[in-house]
């Protein structure tokens, strides 16, 4: 006997809307920071053209590689895979690579500190932490007017992510789409993410993600 299953139209509409929100969030958190970093690099290259043409050429070559990487991230998003840098380098290595790209074109000092050894991380945890860190750093370099920033990673019973800057405070990031997305990414894995004033001014982002 053949059985027929009827899915209510409103359920299909909710599923389609949720799928669209997921794609838009991944574009915002994944490709958005990459393109923001490239835009900053293009600004630096333009400034170098008259004073250091060779330096501008080297930076443009680097930006070309970064654009290819962003294209790879889009393809990975379409295929529902992890970002290529996380797959190749692991979480800490991928964060270091992104920070190195920002350092080459900004006057912000960004340090990455890994406290102790990180255990093998599930792909979902690595990707969520990577997206959260990239979004946080994009907010720092775009809105915070910061001079220094530090990214800290450590593990006790959960993976902990901390991004601390000495910028102007939390007003911009608290009102943006990025904070909701960061909270959602952590929450989907049973974790937490909050943004608060730093102890000495600036902003502190703190996320904790369990490995289960």
From TrEMBL:
Superkingdom field: Bacteria
**A Gene Ontology term for the protein's cellular component:** membrane
Fetch the Pfam families from UniProt.
HATPase_c, HisKA_3
The UniProt record lists the EC number as 2.7.13.3
Domain (Histidine kinase/HSP90-like ATPase): residue spans on this chain: 124-212
Q: Which InterPro entries match?
A: HATPase_C_sf, HATPase_dom, Sensor_HK_TwoCompSys, Sig_transdc_His_kin_sub3_dim/P
Fetch the PANTHER family from UniProt.
NITRATE/NITRITE SENSOR PROTEIN NARX-RELATED, NITRATE_NITRITE SENSOR PROTEIN NARQ
Q: From which organism does this entry originate?
A: Lentzea alba
Keywords (A to Z) from UniProt: ATP-binding, Kinase, Nucleotide-binding, Phosphoprotein, Transferase, Two-component regulatory system
Q: Could you tell me what reaction this enzyme catalyses?
A: ATP + protein L-histidine = ADP + protein N-phospho-L-histidine
Q: What SUPFAM superfamilies is this protein classified in?
A: ATPase domain of HSP90 chaperone/DNA topoisomerase II/histidine kinase (SSF55874)
Which CDD domains does this entry report, sorted A to Z? HATPase_UhpB-NarQ-NarX-like (cd16917)
Task: Supply the name of the protein.
Answer: histidine kinase
């Amino acid at each position: 006997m053949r059985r027929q299953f009827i899915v209510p139209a409103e359920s299909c509409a909710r599923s389609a809307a949720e799928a669209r929100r997921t794609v838009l969030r991944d574009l915002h958190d994944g490709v958005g920071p990459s393109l923001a970093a490239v835009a900053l690099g293009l600004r630096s290259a333009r400034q170098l053209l008259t004073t250091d043409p060779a330096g501008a050429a080297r930076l443009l070559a680097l930006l070309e590689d970064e654009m290819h990487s962003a294209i790879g991230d889009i393809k990975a998003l379409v295929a529902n895979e992890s970002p290529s840098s996380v797959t190749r380098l692991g979480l800490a290595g991928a964060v270091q690579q992104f920070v190195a790209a920002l350092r080459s074109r900004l006057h912000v000092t960004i340090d990455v500190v890994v406290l102790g050894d990180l255990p093998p991380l599930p792909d979902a945890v690595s990707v969520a932490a990577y997206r959260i860190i990239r979004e946080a750093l994009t907010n720092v370099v775009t809105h915070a007017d910061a001079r220094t920033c530090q990214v800290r990673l450590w593990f006790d019973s959960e993976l902990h992510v901390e991004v601390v800057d000495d910028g102007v405070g939390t007003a911009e990031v608290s009102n943006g789409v990025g904070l909701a997305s960061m909270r959602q990414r952590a929450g989907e894995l049973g974790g937490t993410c909050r943004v608060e004033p730093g102890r000495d001014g600036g902003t502190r982002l703190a996320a904790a993600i369990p490995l289960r």
